[in-house]
Amino acid sequence: RLDEVRRENPLAGYNAGWDTRRLWLTAFTEADRRCSIRGYGKTNEDVAEFLRRLSLSELFQKVTLQSTASAQVGGNNVVAFELSCQVRY
After folding, report:
1. 49 contacts 87 by C-beta, under 8 angstroms
2. Can you give the pTM of this predicted structure?
């Protein structure tokens, strides 16, 4: 699937060098295959990378960013986010 996406748009793939420690989850709820995920990223780009990776995954579909907002955690400026998706299993 990733090869197909990259043929259509070379910039659509994920960043292989992305450090996953730049994003952390605070909530993951799932009911009837519908998920809600909340968390924080160091930057908007970190949140965008997480969404790209979920969208490219075979386990998730209909990944939609619901909201982002500036926040402070431990004195650091971060980006709070919430997204929704569906799981396939």
Report:
1. no
2. 0.83
CA separation for the pair 81, 69 (Å, rounded)? 7
Q: Is 68:80 a contact under the CB 8 Å cutoff?
A: yes
Grouped pLDDT means (10 residues each) for the chain, 89 residues: 69 78 96 97 96 91 97 96 96
Give CA 44 to chain center in angstroms: 10
pLDDT at 12: 65
DSSP character for 20? G
| β-bridge partners, 15 | none
Q: Given phi > 0 = left and psi -120 to 50 = alpha, else beta, which region is 7? A: alpha
Residues 76 and 70: beta-carbon distance below 8 Å: no
Sign (positive or negative) of CA dihedral 17, 20, 22, 61: positive
